[in-house]
Hints:
Elements: E1 2-8, H1 19-31, E2 36-41, H2 48-51, E3 59-64, H3 71-81, E4 100-105, E5 110-115, H4 124-136, E6 141-151, H5 158-174, E7 179-184, E8 202-207, H6 214-224, E9 238-240, E10 243-247, H7 257-267, H8 275-291
Parallel strand pairs: 1-2, 1-3, 3-5, 6-7, 6-8, 8-10
Antiparallel strand pairs: 4-5, 9-10
Amino acid sequence: MQALVIVAHGSHLNPGASEPTHAHADTIRDAGAFDEVREAFWKEEPHFREVIRTVEADEVFVVPLFISEGYFTEEVIPRELRLEDWDPERWDSDGTSASEATLEATDVGKTVHYCGPVGTHDAMADVIVRRAESVTGDPDVGEGFALAVVGHGTERNENSAKAIEYHATRIRERGRFDEVVSLFMDEQPEVDDVTDHVETEDVVVVPLFVADGYHTQEDIPEDVGLTDDFRTGWDVPGEVDGKRIWYTGAVGTEPLTAEVVLERAADAGADVGDAIERVRLETGQQTTAVTSD
Length: 293
């Protein structure tokens, strides 16, 4: 038997913070790749500390639904899961290349494959592009558009910016969009100045966050200039400095993120069968349904 555990931050203040985690878990359950699929959170129940002890399978794949490598993925989650002999060096990562480490939860006799965060997996670039397709309603969106990938950024964790720049670079190299830029809330270049950093008239702004909350639904729309007061809402697209801004909200709410979770587990040795293809097909249909309204 094999189990999948998706671990995320959650929130005591924002009831919607856990919604993407539950949605992706449901999608993966429906795909039938695992005997058990569980969710666990830092700020909600069920908690990290108990989740491994509630699964029946002897082999458990743990996938962090986090954007970057850092304090939570390298310290908090392994500590709370009580993984024996954990050390971040086992990932041998440069900040964006964490893959997996096989460890033991000896108190319950389980083998745990601890995976790198979803946000740094190569497949996340496809999710970012899918966000652009979803918000514009155009599966071929690219020509005549700029793409701005937005992250929090922080001087306390250089890996926060690395994840944003990594995906922006990979998408830029595909040549699909006229321009691709990486912008930040707390570092330069700042998202406040998005119209100064692109020449293209149409700009898709994709925040690389797991869930919609204070930053994606309040700070960024106001910082970009889509609205003076987030409580009044904003238009999509919205006019800012003579450009059309297509604001998508958090990338982690895109249904295709479930595929990235599966990719992480598969890279760690999970037998997922045809689940990845099934999820890609299913989430593609969901996106079509949303954008055709």
